[in-house]
Amino acid sequence: MNWLAALRSALRALAANTLRSILTMLGIIIGVAAVVTMIAVGRGATERVQEQMKGLGSNIMLVLPGSVTAGGVRLGAQTGQGLTEDDAVAIARDVPEVQVAAPNLRTGAQVVVGNTNWSTSIFGTTNDYLEGRDWPLATGRLFEAAELQGSAKVAIIGQTVATQLFGDADPMDQVIRVKKVPVTVIGILDKKGQNSMGQDQDDIVIVPISTYRNRIQGGSAGKLKRIGSISVKVKEGHSMKQAEDNIKDLLRQRMKVQPGADDPFSIRNLTEILQAQEASSQVMTLLLAAVAGISLIIGGIGIMNIMLVSVTERTREIGLRMAVGARGRDILAQFLIEAVTLSLIGGAIGVLLGAVATWGVARFSGWNVDMSAASIVLAAGFSAFVGVFFGFYPARRASKLLPIQALRYE
């Protein structure tokens, strides 16, 4: 048979009932647009979480101090022993699963260069923090051992701070004032971007923890070296759960916590939190895609219904064509082509509508989206399948008509 002639005949038949054809395609259009948009939004959400995991670093845990609870009553932060730098050293030394454990102190402050100032986060820690976060330097160097021990006036700054304070100028070896303490920039961090809370990770100034305590915070060397948290990186291939249990046992022993008493600290597995977010976003994407797929199926049912009506309306035409030599497979092909043409045109319009909807979501809601060629091919291919699947029965019914009966149909 001549497939081109069959296609022209199918297009003429659809054009003869334009409004009905458009209404028939509506389900396919909505379904394809929904599939394309939902997959784009879902992929964007998943990639966003993956970026956050990459920015966080792999196998990261955070140990935080907590207050003592007695009889269900929290007695306040001063009742707990808190965490110290020695606890971080002990974790790195005595827990075999741990690669590094970095003590951290943090505050917010104005940083001043000449007439320019910028409010940012001041972080007191060690080089282990950058190793744990997989956070390399874009330029410069890390802290030296003497600088870490001697409260040296040096700092490593993030990309945002560098841009806000120096613009296009080179910040290296420049002096900035942190709470009126002059420190020299010895390194600039590589770009990290936003974290899971939407905070700019590059908006940071890192100083040696001894510098933070003795110069910025104004602590005394004779006081116990309290810290705000401990960043722990677990060795690759080791169990995060085992590391967490060992850290908990070690800290309870060091703090002399009685059996059955609550932990005066908490441990957060940040990697597991982000992995759970990624899994939930993937599940949500699948659910939304499934709902969109139902729209496609409903559109296919609409195509089947209209094609059955078309077979009934054109029964005499079918009989006439058969009488002049058309075979059953020719009739089958024509009606299948009509059904697939409806689906493909609807799918193409749906893809365009989905692209517009995806752009709108990204433009007005600020969500991350990722519209891939694979999702477009999937949606278009599924719409073609819907046309073949739901168009086959009406086409087969038309091809089985007997010419004599079809010609007598009123």
Please give a handful of descriptors for the protein shown.
410 residues, alpha+beta, 2 domains, 6-stranded mixed barrel, two-stranded antiparallel ribbon, 13 helices, elongated
Word description of this protein:
By secondary structure, the chain is of the alpha+beta class. The protein has 2 domains: 3-53 and 275-408, no CATH class; 99-235, no CATH class. Helices cover 56% and strands 19% of the residues. It is built from 13 helices and 14 strands. A 6-stranded mixed beta barrel has the order 5-6-11-8-10-9. A hairpin with a 2-residue loop joins strand 5 and strand 6 (116-125). Helix 2 runs antiparallel to helix 9. It is elongated, with a radius of gyration of 34 Å. 38% of the residues are buried. The model is unreliable at 68-79 (pLDDT under 50).
Structural class: alpha+beta
The biggest sheet amounts to:
6 strands, mixed, barrel
Distance between the termini: 29 Å
Percent in helix: 55-70%
Overall shape: it is elongated
Percentage beta strand: 15-25%
Number of continuous helical runs: 13
**Spatial strand sequence of the major β-sheet:** 5-6-11-8-10-9
| Average pLDDT metric | 79
Point out poorly predicted stretches.
68-79
- Output the radius of gyration: 34 Å
What is the number of independent domains? Answer: 2
Topology as a string of helices (H) and strands (E): HHEEEEHEEHEHEHEEEHEEHEHHHHH
Q: Got a strand count?
A: 14
